[in-house]
């Protein structure tokens, strides 16, 4: 990583970027491959306020100059912005449609799913990945998740989501394979919700 | 193959674990997550030149290099065997560039890179199967233009593929294709399973392991997540069937594995043996153990064919 003397108060990124990002990526991949299961990160990092450790680790692992990031009002503190700018070199955008990642620290007032980029008809992979920090991954209302990566059914209890979230999530299945993918984050734990998953509340 | 030192690959961190620079890994990792999110859809990626010629599994190598870490145990198979030139070269490559532990035992491996086979032993959660893919698009033979087949995938226009298979039935009375047999993933995307025998197709469905497919020349990655529907194309009057053999493996007597015909001498002698050498060796060892400990093994059990 570059050293920038103009930003002495900046928190450090991973101690060992090569092996820490590899380990974090494997956790992220497991979370996408096995949706609904809670995965704790086995690497830690000093997160900038108000980002959770897992959200920070995800950005350090996946974001770079090729991936514009959108931050919601709560996430976009000076500290978080400087941190992401310095360590990820990711452009920060105010245009939700051009964001490859969206960091949401206030899920109760999050934008609607279709405000983000669902990808293109022929390239559905060019979509926004939402990183949603929630108060709990277990203490919210349980919903039944079905689909690829899930052996029969799994019932996570994601807390803090707006009422419209699950009905809107299922509406998105109409445009599959376009759609957005989600990581729910709480502290150093995360749950994957890729677009192919269907949810019954 | 040339060594990793032959190419500029410094990351600024001083070294390059698993050969690829960190930015390339990050790009491939993002591609892998999208591939898992849209099962069976071919995600384009900015592949890097690897120190191996195409045909040596550069797509699979780039996938493995982007996921592998110091805690992994890597197995590499080619035609079911760990000791072929291709498998040995790739295993050596990762021993050199990542210093990772390797194994020939399916059950011990966390990552299995493969060409032409899925191991006979059932895979478990936590294992990752990486396929080397020469041609990722099952529609390539129908239309070689990628922008055209991409549209067909986008709108799930798979009628032409069905027609091609049905022409086989009209000509041969059955679907002639025995390997790289196309399958529908998650009831939405038609996928090339790579040149595995169709015998292996049923193993892809509802597998607890993660299955990743890398095509180096075509620069595409696709995936089958665990517990996902993978249906080989067929017709009501011609259901999908796998190959069967009349006899069993001449070495381990298995009646359920995929058998290769091998020539045993220069007088035309031949026998059928398991293509999966780890599976076969393990069964032979188990039988030897059973014999030593007084177990009963039927005489000539393996010799009938
Ligand atoms: Zn055998």
TrEMBL record, chain A:
Gene3D superfamilies: Bacterial phosphonate metabolism protein PhnH
An annotated GO BP: organic phosphonate metabolic process
Classification via InterPro entries: PhnH-like_sp, Phosphonate_metab_PhnH
NCBIfam families reported for this sequence: PhnH_redo
Protein name: Alpha-D-ribose 1-methylphosphonate 5-triphosphate synthase subunit PhnH
Organism: Mesorhizobium tianshanense
Source taxonomy: Bacteria, Pseudomonadati, Pseudomonadota, Alphaproteobacteria, Hyphomicrobiales
From TrEMBL, chain B:
Catalytic activity field: alpha-D-ribose 1-methylphosphonate 5-phosphate + AH2 + S-adenosyl-L-methionine = alpha-D-ribose 1,2-cyclic phosphate 5-phosphate + methane + 5'-deoxyadenosine + L-methionine + A + H(+)
InterPro entries: PhnJ
GO annotation terms (biological process): organic phosphonate catabolic process
Keyword Iron-sulfur: yes
Superkingdom of the source species: Bacteria
EC class: lyase
Key words, A-Z: 4Fe-4S, Iron, Iron-sulfur, Lyase, Metal-binding, S-adenosyl-L-methionine
Annotated function: Catalyzes the breakage of the C-P bond in alpha-D-ribose 1-methylphosphonate 5-phosphate (PRPn) forming alpha-D-ribose.
Family named by the database record: Belongs to the PhnJ family.
Protein name: Alpha-D-ribose 1-methylphosphonate 5-phosphate C-P lyase
Organism field: Mesorhizobium tianshanense
Biological classification of the source: Bacteria, Pseudomonadati, Pseudomonadota, Alphaproteobacteria, Hyphomicrobiales
């Amino acid at each position: 990583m570059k050293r920038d003397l103009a930003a002495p108060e900046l928190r450090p990124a991973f101690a060992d970027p090569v092996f820490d990002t590899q380990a974090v990526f494997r956790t992220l991949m497991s979370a996408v491959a096995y949706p609904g299961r809670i995965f704790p990160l086995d690497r830690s990092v000093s997160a900038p306020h108000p980002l959770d450790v897992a959200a920070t680790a995800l950005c350090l692992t996946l974001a770079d100059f090729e991936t514009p990031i959108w931050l919601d009002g709560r996430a976009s503190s000076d500290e978080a912005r400087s941190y992401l700018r310095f360590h990820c070199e990711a452009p920060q955008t105010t245009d939700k449609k051009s964001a490859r990642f969206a960091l949401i620290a206030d899920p109760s007032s999050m934008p609607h799913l279709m405000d983000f980029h669902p990808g293109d008809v022929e390239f559905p992979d060019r979509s926004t990945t939402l990183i949603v920090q929630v108060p709990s991954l277990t203490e919210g209302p349980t919903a039944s998740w079905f689909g690829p990566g899930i052996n029969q059914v799994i019932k996570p209890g994601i807390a803090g989501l707006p009422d419209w979230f699950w009905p809107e999530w299922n509406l998105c299945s109409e445009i599959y394979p376009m759609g957005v993918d989600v990581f729910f984050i709480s502290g150093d734990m995360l749950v994957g919700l890729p677009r192919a998953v269907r949810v019954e509340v | 193959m040339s060594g990793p030192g032959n190419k500029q690959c410094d990351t600024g961190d001083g070294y390059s674990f698993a050969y690829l620079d960190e930015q390339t890994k990050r790009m491939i990792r993002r591609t892998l997550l999208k591939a898992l999110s849209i099962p069976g859809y071919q995600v384009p990626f900015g592949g890097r030149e690897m120190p191996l010629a195409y045909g040596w599994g550069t797509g699979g190598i780039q996938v493995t290099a982007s996921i592998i870490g110091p805690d992994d145990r890597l197995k590499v198979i080619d035609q079911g065997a760990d000791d072929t030139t291709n498998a040995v070269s790739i295993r050596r490559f990762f021993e050199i560039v990542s210093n990772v532990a390797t194994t020939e035992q399916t059950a011990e491996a966390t990552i299995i890179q493969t060409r032409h086979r899925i191991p006979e032993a059932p895979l478990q959660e936590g294992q990752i199967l990486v396929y080397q893919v020469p041609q990722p698009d099952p529609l390539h033979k129908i239309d070689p233009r990628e922008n055209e087949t991409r549209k067909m995938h986008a709108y799930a226009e798979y009628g032409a593929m069905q027609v091609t298979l049905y022409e086989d039935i009209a000509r041969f009375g059955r679907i002639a294709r025995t390997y790289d047999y196309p399958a529908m993933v998650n009831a939405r995307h038609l996928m090339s399973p790579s040149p595995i025998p169709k015998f292996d197709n049923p193993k892809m469905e509802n597998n607890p392991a993660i299955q990743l497919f890398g095509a180096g020349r075509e620069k595409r990655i696709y995936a089958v997540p665990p517990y996902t529907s993978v249906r080989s194309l067929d017709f009501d009057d011609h259901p999908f069937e796998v190959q069967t053999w009349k006899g069993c493996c001449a070495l381990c007597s298995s009646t359920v594995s995929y058998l290769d015909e091998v020539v045993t001498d220069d007088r035309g002698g031949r026998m059928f043996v398991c293509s999966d050498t780890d599976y076969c060796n393990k069964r032979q060892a188990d039988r030897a153990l059973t014999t030593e400990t007084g177990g009963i093994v039927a005489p000539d059990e393996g010799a009938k064919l």
